Amino acid sequence: MPPLALKKGAGPLRRWLFVGLGVATFGLYGMAFVVDRFGQRERAVPSDVVVVLGARVLPGGSPSPALRARVEKAVELYHQGLAPRLLFSGGVGINPPSEARVMRDLAVRLGVPEDACLLEEQSHSTEQNARFSSDVLRSLGARRVVVVSDPYHLLRARQYFRLHGFEVATSPAFLSERNMGFVDRCYWTVREAAALLLHPRVLFAREPSRASSSS
Fold first, then answer.
1. By the 8 A CB rule, do 42 and 82 touch?
2. Can you give the pLDDT at residue 75?
3. Per-residue model confidence (pLDDT) at position 22
4. By the 8 A CB rule, do 167 and 144 touch?
5. Residue 139 burial (CB < 10 Å; 0-12/13-18/19+)?
6. What is the pLDDT of residue 20?
7. What is the rounded distance in angstroms from the CA atom of residue 189 to the CA atom of residue 167?
8. Tens digit of each residue's pLDDT (9 = 90 or more) over 34-63
9. What is the structure's pLDDT at 151?
């Protein structure tokens, strides 16, 4: 039989455990609400480059619905004159070729001149999208970008590009199946919220000041 002192301490310990779980749960779902609301709003403004983040490539090299939705949104922004160039970011996943190359080919078929399309073919994560794209963007002298992705993805993507010193606007690809289906939308949104909470440096990244971005 456990000592009496342990029995007496078990009650407060259990209560604090439940309080901690409640706070963590509230924080996760509160952040998920912020992620969802942020991603549902169109924030595109005139910029130097539209950056399109990659998604799955299907067998045979055809774009997945999420990839197609992102490219179609970026092409729409290009034809509206929001930026003179599109940068497609994404490496080779399970199925070749690279996500960037599949997106570029689709954009060209949709009427974007090939010389307006740039490729970043090394990345395999959102952090790498921002890191490797930043090299291309700086070579162009770009300071402000529009990032295109699924709505759930946009807040975290914006924060990563901010860490690399860019002014960032966002534009959601609403027609992705991950946004249309309620269960998928909930799953991906909660997943993004957890990723942000686990990386405070990303969560609290601020937009660069005008002085620092022009230096």
1. no
2. 98
3. 41
4. yes
5. exposed
6. 43
7. 24
8. 999 999 999 999 999 999 999 999 999 999
9. 94
pLDDT digits (tens, 9 = 90+) for 4-33: 554 555 566 665 454 444 445 557 889 999
Structure tokens at 142: 């770009």
Assigned token pair, 202: 């990303």
**Which residue positions in the chain have pLDDT lower than 50?**
6, 16, 18-23, 215
- What is the token pair recorded at 198? 């686990």
Prediction pTM value? 0.85
Pairing of strands 49-53, 144-149: parallel
Rounded Cα distance, 109 and 103, in Å: 10
Q: What is the C-alpha separation between 35 and 191, in angstroms, rounded?
A: 10
What is the three-state SS of the chain? Answer: CCCHHHHHHHHHHHHHHHHHHHHHHHHHHHHHHHHHHHHCCCCCCCCCEEEEECCCECCCCCECHHHHHHHHHHHHHHHCCCCCCEEEECCCCCCCCCHHHHHHHHHHHCCCCHHHEEEECCCCCHHHHHHHHHHHHHHHCCCEEEEEECHHHHHHHHHHHHHCCCEEEEEECCCCHHHHCHHHHHHHHHHHHHHHHCCHHHHCCCCCCHHHHHC
Q: Which residue has the tokens 């690399």?
A: 164
Amino acid 174: pLDDT = 87
The rounded Cα 215 to chain-centroid distance in angstroms is 26
Q: Which residue has the tokens 């269960």?
A: 183
